[in-house]
Amino acid sequence: MNTRRHVNVLPLYPLNLYFLNMHPFVLFSLALCSLSFISSGEANESVRGFTIDLIHWDSILSPFYNPSLTPSERIINAALRSISRLNRVALLDENKLSESLLIPDSGEYLMRFSIGTPPVEKLAIADTGGHLSWIQCSPCRSCVPQDTPLFEPNKSSTFTNLSCDSQPCTFLGPNQQKCGTVNECIYLQEYGDKSFTTGVLGTETFTFDSSSGTQSVSFPNTIFGCGFYNHFSHRPSDKAAGLVGLGAGPLSLVSQLGDQIGHKFSYCLLPFSSNSTSKLKLGSEANITGNNVVSTPLIMKPSSPYFYFLNLEAITIGQNTLQTGQTDGNIIIDSGSTLTLLEETLYYNFEASLEEALGVESVQDVPFPFSYCFPYRENMTLPSIAFQFTGATVTLDPVNLFVQDNDTLCLAVVPSSVIGFPISIFGNIAQIEYQVEYDLEGKKVSFAPADCTKF
Known about the structure:
Belongs to the peptidase A1 family. GO terms for molecular function: aspartic-type endopeptidase activity. The protein is of the alpha+beta class. The chain folds into two domains: 8-280, Acid Proteases (Cathepsin D, subunit A, domain 1, Beta Barrel); 290-454, Acid Proteases (Cathepsin D, subunit A, domain 1), CATH 2.40.70. It contains eight helices and 30 strands. It has helices spanning 17-21, 24-31, 71-87, 97-100, 167-171, 253-257, 344-358, 398-401; strands spanning 8-9, 32-34, 49-56, 109-115, 120-127, 134-136, 160-161, 177-179, 185-190, 196-208, 217-231, 242-245, 264-268, 278-283, 294-297, 299-301, 304-310, 312-317, 320-323, 331-333, 340-342, 373-375, 385-389, 392-396, 402-405, 408-411, 413-415, 424-426, 434-439, 444-449. The strands form six sheets. Strands 4-5-12-6-11-10 form a six-stranded mixed β-barrel. A hairpin with an 8-residue loop joins strand 10 and strand 11. The longest helix is centred in the first third of the chain and has 17 residues, at 71-87. 46% of the residues are buried.
């Protein structure tokens, strides 16, 4: 039989400016006297595979959908969110890249899941750059407004908080964890713009409804952050309750599921204008096969352990090839970044080669955050463009490279100078209508062109 203790906290004092300027760990410790639950969960049976809907922020199926925007305005807004998400870390040094690159308030894809017993449905941001899943919890000392109730761990029979000496607590960085008054592991996830979430690291049952016909599948003892203090400098909506980490760190959802999903997941992303949802597949359903599959090594870097790196060897534009001269993983693949970013020298060589192949000059007034736009004619021939990763040439169609605004096309590739940080990212527009499989055990990423409505 499961037993639980009720949450005991000090009285909530007014959160004046002084309090808000305090370090979140100090603030949390002042309010948290004790928080302890005792629970047990049965071991989860292995699953063959399941599929989860991914809802793009600007799709008609999203709670954020704005019907007054044009398709090009939606893409520009997505690009601006993506740039803002990255731009707020422009002043960080490279040593902080691993923990602070991605800001958790404007990821581009959302997913639904249920948490707890009885299960409570939540909508959260799915992020291949996030390593810790977390949601806002009650009783909350300082939470960001959301239009659904906070998760109440004391009403779930399967919630357990983790101790300071537990292995998951040690997976948090030295500046990301603290020991509470009753030996509970308190986590801190702080981001580049000084946004943060802090609370108790615990385990709970996560349940996913599979859209592939499989019955819902539950995973007990899933590690997550139950956030009692959450502060975000920029918060565009009150719809999302947290974040589901799909990154490379040991606490991410895909790392935790590990053997149960064969250390594999894949997705197939639809254009923003689609009336269908994109798909995330885990386990056996994640496998992609066929003659058109190409694979490239997945590179993990100790200095940036939460991100998936690939090695981009060259870019071809028509008959011209631009070599990068890199071999050690020079580009992050990220579903949460809209545009593709290239380091400046490579980008401007790419832009010049594209302009030469098109035979047209850039328009004068280029809307931010784009760098190169040109007048589009109906019979214009666009050059073949491909990204050559080690062992895998990925040919990009116009939908992967250009955004149309009336009679103008803008390149969905920009220089890294827009964020003030010299890093390359292979964004989600470039991945549209591709099956992308991450084999974490085999350490490779595979691509195959696809009709993602049939994925």
